[in-house]
Amino acid sequence: MEQVTNALTTALAAVFLSAMVIEVRRRQKQLQELYNVLDEQDKQIVTELDRMVETGEIEPYAE
Amino acid sequence: MSDTSATPARARKSRPSPATSAQGAETGRHPRFRLFILDTGWTSPAAQVIRDNFEMIRSFKNGDPLYVLSPEQSREIIRKHPHFIGKDPILIVRDMHRSGPRDGGEYHGFHLNLGLIQKPVRALAALQEFLRFLSVHRQSANIEKDIRDRLHKDGFIGTIEVIREGAKDAMGA
C-alpha cells in the first residue's frame, strides 16, 4: 500500500512539475511576443519607418 | 475601428519641429534612439492607455525624436505586414548608436506590442516598465543584450516571476 502511495505521489509531483515547466515556457513566450528585440518582421517595418523619416513623410513630434 | 483623431494625442498635430529634428546638433550629440508609435485605431484598452498617457511618453523620451504615425500611416504599414494585426499600438525603439544597414549592419532596437494586452492596468504597467527600461538602460552599450538577459531569465528566478505574474492574473490585477 505504501509503495502505491509513493508511486502515486511521485507521479503527481512529476505531472505538477511538468505543468509548471510548460506554463513557465508559455508565459516566457508570451512575454517575448510582447516585449523583445527587433526580429526579422520588425526589421521590415523599421526599414519602412526609416525611409519615411528620411523622406520627411513622418517628422518628430513637436515639443 | 475607431476614429482616434479626436484623442488628445492625435489632436495635436505631429508637426515638423526644427527644434526637435535638429536636437542632435543643438545638444552636441546624436539621439540615442528613434521612437515610433504605430496605432491603427482599434478600440482597445491598450490603445486607450497609450492615448491617455501620451504626455507621459513624451516626458520620458529624454530628447530622443518621437514619431507618431497617423492611423492611416499605421494601417498602411500593417496592411503590408499583416502579422502585426491586433498587436498595435506598437512602440518601436530603434537604437541609432548601433550600426545600421547603411554601414553593412542591421537594425537594432526593441518593440512593445502593447495591443496584445487586454487589461488596462496591465497595459499601463507594461508601458511604464518599457519607459523605465528605456530610461535606465539608455547609456547601455548593448541594450539588446540587456533585454535578452531580462527576458531569458531561466531557472528559479524566472519561475518565481512567472508564478508571481500568474498570481496577479488570478487576482485580476
Distance between the termini of chain B: 27 Å
Shape of chain B: globular
Largest protein interface? A-B, 33 and 52 residues
Strand order in space, largest sheet of chain B: 2-1-3-4
Instruction: Tell me roughly what share of residues is in helical segments of chain A.
Output: over 70%
CATH architecture of chain B: 3-Layer(aba) Sandwich
CATH class of chain B: Alpha Beta
What order do the helices and strands of chain B follow? HHHEHHEHEEHHH
Low-confidence stretches of chain B: 1-27
Strand content of chain B: 5-15%
Low-confidence stretches of chain A: none
Name the overall outline of chain A.
Answer: rod-shaped
Instruction: Output the structural class of chain B.
Output: alpha+beta
What is the multimeric organization of the chains shown?
A: heterodimer
| Backbone CA Rg of chain B | 17 Å
Provide the helix percentage of chain B: 40-55%
Descriptive keywords:
heterodimer; A: 63 residues; mainly alpha; 2 helices; 76% helix; 5% strand; rod-shaped; B: 173 residues; alpha+beta; Glutaredoxin; four-stranded mixed β-sheet; 9 helices; 4 strands; globular; disordered N terminus
What would you say this structure looks like, in words?
The complex is a heterodimer of chains A (63) and B (173). With 63 residues, chain A is mostly helical. In chain A, 76% of the residues lie in helices and 5% in strands. Chain A has one domain. Chain A is rod-shaped, with a radius of gyration of 25 Å. The mean pLDDT of chain A is 86. Chain B is α+β, with helices and mostly antiparallel strands and 173 residues long. Chain B has helices at residues 8-11, 18-21, 23-27, 45-52, 54-59, 71-80, 120-136, 143-151, 155-170; strands at 33-38, 66-68, 90-95, 109-113. Chains A and B meet through helix 1, strand 1 and helix 2 of A and helix 2, strand 1, strand 2, helix 6 and strand 4 of B. Strand 1 of chain A pairs antiparallel with strand 4 (109-113) of chain B, so a sheet runs across the interface.
